[in-house]
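Hey,
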Amino acid sequence: MHPESSPAIEVRELRKVYGEKAAVDGLTLRVERGCFFGFLGPNGAGKTTTIRMLMGLAPASSGSIEILGHRMPAESLSIKSKIGLVPDDTLLFDHLTGAEFVEFVGRMYNLGRELSRSRTAELLELFELDGAGRKLIGEYSKGMRKRVAMAAALIHRPELYLLDEPFEGVDAVGARLMKDILLDQVRHGATIFLTSHVLEVVERLCDRVAIINQGRIIVDGTMDELRSGTETLEDTFVRVVGGPAHSSESLDWL
């Protein structure tokens, strides 16, 4: 299959084992190009581990990964040049300023110094981070960290975005800006692979959703295919993952 006609993401029987526990256990998934894809699951389900394997930050124990027609890890450099990543907080450089970090990412993607610097200035202004000055990322709030990560993900205009809880800690204005930018990227042909616990956001943004639990995909489909009757995505999620065994009604004092 020619790379341009291949899906954005295709994984088969993917496993990641830590000790005796499989964080991801036989995951098979296909994400078409130009799709806004939601990847959901409860805490510890394997979402972040999956993204780390897709990005090449964690080697798979077994199975295969193809990104934009290229095999991971054999063609990891080609893959990484076409991906924008909004990671969890631990993957940011706390001892750089926001401007230094975004410009550094641009240079890593082979943008010229002046182009990287000018795009950095524009992105920081767009995300209202230009007033942070010499403030180090380690001093940023969670919302500021997510915004600078998004700015860095955009700088080289990637074909595929891997977003791990991108709206966590971001205020309503910043979240609206990020959503509008991402929808615009999809309209221009990019693919978004998003994890989020904010199911209302996923319901509004995503074309297709997969739900993972205990390292395995339990449902995968369009919103209409997943929901039953008048269900919301939250209703569907609780139904397929399994809701709490007890409620406040079981506590006499609550």
